[in-house]
Amino acid sequence: MPVRLSAFSLVRNALSSHERWPQLWRSPEPRRRYDVIVIGGGGHGLATAYYLAKEHGIGNVAVIEKGWLGGGNTGRNTTVVRSNYFYPESARLYDLSLRLYEGLSRDIGFNIMLSQRGVLTLAHNSHQLEMLARWLNAMHLNGIDGELLEPSRIREWVPLLNDSPTARYPVKGAVLQRRGGVARHDAVAWGYARAADALGVDIIQNCEVVGFLREGDRIVGVETSRGELRAPKVALAVAGHSSVLAAKAGFRLPVTSYALQAFVTEPVKPVLSCVVVSMSTGAYVSQSDKGELVTGGALDLYPSYAQRGNLPTLQGAVAGLLELFPCFSRLRMLRQWAGIVDVVHDSSPIIDEAPVKGLYLNCGWGTGGFKAIPGGGFAFAHLLATGRHHPAAEGFTLNRFTRGAMIDEGAAAGISH
Prior knowledge:
By secondary structure, the chain is α/β, with parallel strands linked by helices. The protein is 29% helix and 22% strand. It has 2 domains: 28-110 and 184-254 and 346-413, FAD/NAD(P)-binding domain (3-Layer(bba) Sandwich), CATH 3.50.50.60; 119-181 and 257-343, D-Amino Acid Oxidase, subunit A, domain 2 (D-Amino Acid Oxidase, Chain A, domain 2), CATH 3.30.9. It is built from 10 helices and 19 strands.
């Protein structure tokens, strides 16, 4: 059951230097046998475990995490949620995720601080405006909300935007998805962890997978830094490290890992009421509840597993941001970081059985992992529990690369990645 704190207990715990705060989830010793082992204690792994227990009654589940819970991409992103995708397959999956996000705080009894402030994607020339119109038509055919805004209406949404006709990137129009917005990344991880723990899931941190246990041609468990753990089904949800774990299991994934960097400025009073994305500059920006401007740009141009920033990418992202908002030029940058994203050829995810029996894959989300946490976890849990693909994820199989049935969402992201 969720932990309830009275006003008195809040004051008491604060005065005790927070030493008496109740734990949100247990830190159990690993059992030797589970029904399902989920590798990866980020959003997708935790959501998968939660929906296995809640929707399918499978509570004998272990989530094992090499580091600390939510310390990977879940804690290293820009927190945007949206479902404004072009292809029907993507629209079904990402809108499932957004609908789950809309009810998630009630479902798990934990405030994820969802703010549906809108996502505004800008066009800066006639070609981009035509692309946005086609994109919007596809969204409407897919049942996704959206509207095309003229420059005068864009100004109402973003008064500080540089919309001068002489600007380097003049604003010609924009597509707005009002249901899009942001959510608190830590709260999503913590909420899913607490809710899964309450349903009997074991969350085991500081537990590294060093190999897989096999019986014949089937994987039957994992070898970890804390001993052998066995289960008839092992699920990978490790984002940018998917190819590393796949190599340990003896096969190769069509995944390349890149660093995606982000930055926050010093906090200021509210100046930005929605998420703004630029198709020309590649920059995107929103304002956090603390007042910080959260911004990012394109992927690094080379494969990497380094969770750190670099100066050239920072310069490019800041230059793009200042083309849109010259008034931000005097703000100081506070923090810079990188998440390791798993990019496949068509910029769409893989939710499927692996080429090795007993192993299942949730990967390939690229830059869309955070927004897809609820839907990805829900669909992955369905596959693990039933052996069948959820209707919202039927197109995201591994064999689409051999069949040529790509779902190429590279352009639909609105930015270069």
